[in-house]
Amino acid sequence: MPAIRAAVARATGQPLELLDLHLDEPQPDEVLVRMVATGLCHTDLTVRDTVVPPALPAILGHEGAGVVEKVGAAATGISVGDRVALSFASCGDCKACRGGHPAHCASFIDLNMSGTRRDGTSTLRHEDGTPIGGSFFSQSSFATHALAHASNVVKIRPQDDLELVGPLGCGVQTGAGTVINVLRPAPGSSLVVFGVGGVGMSAALAALAVGCTTVVAVDVNAERLQLAKELGVTAVLDPTTDDVLAELTALNGGVDYAVDTTGRATIVKTALEALAPGGVLALHGLYTPDGEGLDVAAIPAGKSVVSVIEGDSVPQTTIPALLALHEAGHFPFDRLITFYDFDNINEAIADMESGRTIKPVIRFPA
Q1: N or C: less crowded end of the chain, CB within 10 Å?
Q2: Residues 315, 152: contact at Cβ < 8 Å?
Q3: Predicted local confidence at residue 183, as pLDDT
Q4: Cβ distance 337 to 176 under 8 Å?
Q5: Per-residue pLDDT at 359
Q6: Residues 193/215, Cβ–Cβ less than 8 Å
Q7: CATH number of the domain enclosing 24
Q8: Same domain, yes or no: 186 and 152
Q9: Phi, psi dihedrals of residue 243, rounded to the nearest 5°
């Protein structure tokens, strides 16, 4: 049973605690991965700070990248020494999985947020043998080593930088996948993103990569809007000073596509109203009823609203595709990243919560 060091979420709203723990040996369908880096996502904090599973204390983290050290006997196609990204888990056998939509897996919650393996056993223990919640998104990557199910391991190329790969497992593929897999805008289309954090900025970059000629970023953070301009968006709007709806509807009667990452009801309503006839609004995040919001019955004829999970991605194809776009210079997601050493993970959390950092990535000691 390997000894590892992990950042433990012990209580709601409290800093993570670095502890020495024991991790199980891989079962036949699992692989042991030495972590090189992992992205930090708002989902990790949502789980820590609310009453959603898994129960605390637990090891969170779900955007891991590392090197395979051990392989279970039934984990085919994976070898010791492989460089891998870790993404969300899916059963592979339900209607959604068989149809190429694993993010809509019928067992998504059980496989990703139960705190245990698929068979209900724990992968992590305190030094005294007491079990602790793990298997978060079938990885729990806030640790020096992670056990992952073979199905959520994504092999990457030798030339890919593992320190950049981590955030592709969830946040970046969520934003980019929304554009590439779901909205699929034709070249020359217009698209607006409300909220340019990690998910929103990734959506904007993907829109530029696929040929949208008008890409608008809406946010209240001036530094993020400045970065969006540097990365190529055609316009930025601050709702505290700009009439967002008027500006967007002035674009040929509205925009073709909108992506909301805020989850705020009033912003969702504005996004819908800003669409041109035939436009599509993609929703992310937990819906927050912060006032008069979206009345589904009042959606104008010809406009559509779609709720997106994980960018409707198949990680084994989406992650390599995004890396190829990055290598070609068309998807500079590295500009969103700020690196932190593992010992400073709580500083990374504070910087993300304050808006100082768009996408923190935790680096583990070699």
Answers
A1: C
A2: yes
A3: 98
A4: no
A5: 97
A6: yes
A7: 3.90.180.10
A8: no
A9: -85, 90
Q: What residue type is assigned to position 301 of the chain?
A: A
In a domain, 130, yes or no: yes
Q: Which amino acid is at 61?
A: G
Tell the residue number behind the tokens 């605690």, with chain if given. 17
pLDDT score recorded for residue 202: 98
Domain range for 165: 3-169+332-363
C-alpha count within 13 angstroms, C-beta hemisphere, residue 83: 14
- Give every residue of the chain whose pLDDT is below 70, as ranges: 1-2, 51-53, 285-297
Cis peptide leading into residue 53 (ω within 30°): no
- Does residue 178 share a domain with residue 163? no
Residue 164 has a pLDDT of: 94
pLDDT value for 63? 96
According to the model, what pLDDT value does residue 52 have? 66
Kind and range of the H or E element at 209?
A: helix 198-209
Do 70 and 179 lie in one domain? The reply is: no
- Tokens for 194, please give them: 């409300």
Q: What CA–CA distance (Å, rounded) separates 334 from 337?
A: 5
Same domain, 69 and 132: yes
CA 91: distance to chain centroid? 19
Chain centre distance of CA 334: 15
Q: Do 52 and 73 have their domain in common?
A: yes
Evaluate whether 5 touches 127 at the Cβ level (below 8 Å): no
How many structural domains are present in the chain? 2
Tokens of 334: 């590295």
Q: In which element (H, E) is residue 47 found?
A: helix 42-49
* In-domain check, residue 321: no
CA distances from 72 to 29, 92, 107, 254, 325 (A): 5, 18, 22, 53, 32
- Sign of dihedral through CA atoms 366, 89, 103, 218? negative
pLDDT recorded at residue 255? 97
- Residue listed under structure tokens 């967002």: 244
User: Could you tell me which residues come within 8 angstroms of residue 66 by beta carbon, excluding any fewer than 6 positions away?
Assistant: 33, 34, 35, 36, 37, 83, 84, 86, 146, 162, 364
Looking at the structure, tell me whether residues 11 and 131 fall in a common domain.
Answer: yes
